[in-house]
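Deliverable D4.2, example record:
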Amino acid sequence: MINLSKRAEVLIKSNYLANLVTLMPDGSPHVAPVWYKYDGQNYLILSEPKTIKVKNIYSDNRTAILISKPDPPYSYVMLKGHANTSNYEYEDLLMELSIKYLGEIAGEKYGNEIKETSDLILITFTPNKVVEFFDS
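Output generated by the structure prediction step:
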């Protein structure tokens, strides 16, 4: 488990998207914005199984996440580590993330639509290194 500063925890627990970086087969980076839940140790992300990020994790599970505040004062938390995928009863997490990022009404509507039209898997990102930057 890595140690985070209080400022980093506040940023991580906010509603900012995370940029998930995975490695393509040729070693080049692939970046995808994702919704996430931080459970105090891991970052939980839902994805459709056939996405590039999931395929990349299957072949090389080294990953990184960047969570940044896009307006002044700028700040970010970059986490490096490994990700794994698993089948997961995702409905509760889907609703939690939908409401977190879209608000109560829009989130419930979106979450219910996705439950009916998609089959998702869980990406669990476990960090082993952190870099923090806070501009003031």
